[in-house]
């Protein structure tokens, strides 16, 4: 009950603060609008052509089917380039020259991708998987009923082998789609400010000692504050999501629950960061200045302002892996556009491990001293 009381106190203080609400809600909405319109007439933020290399050592039926598959997907902006040397193909993927490498051998296809591939890599993999599933299904039927292939003529491969989801030419990532996600995850980082001031406010208003003099325990205070700030930032995030979806027409995919889970994990991380800084730095303005210096750099590496891969710097790409926002944005984009959950565990693990570290650090500092 005491935890709930402290939690509600934090929620009221944050949601009733007009300055905080203006920064956390109006600012990202304005930025989404400005950046969305600025890039809406260009192709800078769109996916662009997906480039895949392949080596064909497959049997006759697989090779024929794959040839038709290549011709059809070319109309969708997917470019396949044949390469004879398998080792060279793998080398090109390691250098991230292409979005994927398909190796046809006998009746099988092996798809190689770089561990740090972006959403285009995931789309390419989904397409190959779709082709393989259809091919296996049709060959399985043909093995039981040889007349199947003969009766179907060319099996209408144009239709049967190109059952691809999330690659329709009409369904492209617009600038509004991109910046609705990146501006949201960026502004959530600034939720760390609320964590700082939840601690600093008790210090400046001289209310901290009175709270400690009450029957409430320190762990109840800490839990209540973390939960209160987390809930407040999540409410602000919800407003941004619904505004971007229904006003700007941003695509948030079909699995909004998973997106919410990823977002909440980021919020817990930044709140933990803010609260710990509130204990470490006794001056709220100094803590705010530190965050203002760190957050833009973290956001830049996470692709908040512009896709990191489009910058063409392998050094920045490698450096971006140290930004938790990189994993958060990657996970969200893959869930929305490809239905791929591969990066979700990584994003959750990164955010929650950092959250646990900062919350434990806060508990240690709070146990040693008062506000």
From TrEMBL:
Q: Which GO terms describe its cellular component?
A: plasma membrane
Where does it live in the cell? Answer: Cell membrane
| Claim: Transport is one of the keywords in the record | yes
Tell me the superkingdom of the source.
Bacteria
Which keywords does this chain's UniProt record carry?
A: Cell membrane, Membrane, Transmembrane, Transmembrane helix, Transport
Q: Pinpoint the ABC transmembrane type-2 domain residues.
A: 125-369
Transmembrane residue ranges? 20-39, 178-201, 222-244, 256-281, 290-308, 343-366
Q: Which Pfam families match?
A: ABC2_membrane_3
Q: Which GO terms describe its molecular function?
A: ABC-type transporter activity
Which family does the record assign? Belongs to the ABC-2 integral membrane protein family.
Name of this chain's protein: ABC-2 type transport system permease protein
Which species does the entry assign this protein to?
Caldanaerobacter subterraneus
Q: What is the lineage of its organism?
A: Bacteria, Bacillati, Bacillota, Clostridia, Thermoanaerobacterales
């Amino acid at each position: 009950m005491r935890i709930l009381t402290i939690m509600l106190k934090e929620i009221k203080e944050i949601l009733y603060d007009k300055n905080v609400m203006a920064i956390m809600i109006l600012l990202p909405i304005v930025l989404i609008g400005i950046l969305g319109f600025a890039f809406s007439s260009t192709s800078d933020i769109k996916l662009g052509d997906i480039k895949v290399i392949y080596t064909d050592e497959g049997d006759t039926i697989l090779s024929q089917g794959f040839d038709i598959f290549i011709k059809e997907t070319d109309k969708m902006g997917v470019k396949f380039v044949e390469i004879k040397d398998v080792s060279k193909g793998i080398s090109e993927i390691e250098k991230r020259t292409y979005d994927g490498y398909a190796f046809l051998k006998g009746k099988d296809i092996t798809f190689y991708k770089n561990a740090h591939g972006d959403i285009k890599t995931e789309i390419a993999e989904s397409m190959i998987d779709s082709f393989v599933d259809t091919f296996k299904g049709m060959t399985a039927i043909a093995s039981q009923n040889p007349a199947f292939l003969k009766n179907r003529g060319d099996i209408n491969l144009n239709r049967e082998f190109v059952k691809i989801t999330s690659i329709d030419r009409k369904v492209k990532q617009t600038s509004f789609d991109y910046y609705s996600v990146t501006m949201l995850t960026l502004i959530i980082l600034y939720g760390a400010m609320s964590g700082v001031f939840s601690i600093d406010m008790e210090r400046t208003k001289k209310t901290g000692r009175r709270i400690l003099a009450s029957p409430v325990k320190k762990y109840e205070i800490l839990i209540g504050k973390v939960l209160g700030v987390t809930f407040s930032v999540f409410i602000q995030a919800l407003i941004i999501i619904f505004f971007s979806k229904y006003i700007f027409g941003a695509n948030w995919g079909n699995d909004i629950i998973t997106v919410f889970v990823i977002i909440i994990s980021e919020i817990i991380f930044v709140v933990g960061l803010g609260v710990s800084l509130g204990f470490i730095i006794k001056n709220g303005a100094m803590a705010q200045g530190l965050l203002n210096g760190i957050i833009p750099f973290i956001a830049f590496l996470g692709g908040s302002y512009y896709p990191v891969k489009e910058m063409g710097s392998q050094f920045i790409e490698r450096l971006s892996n140290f930004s938790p926002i990189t994993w958060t944005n990657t996970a969200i984009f893959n869930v929305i556009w490809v239905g791929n959950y591969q990066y979700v565990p990584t994003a959750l693990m990164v955010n929650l491990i950092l959250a646990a570290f900062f919350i434990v650090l806060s508990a240690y500092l709070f146990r040693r001293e008062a506000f």
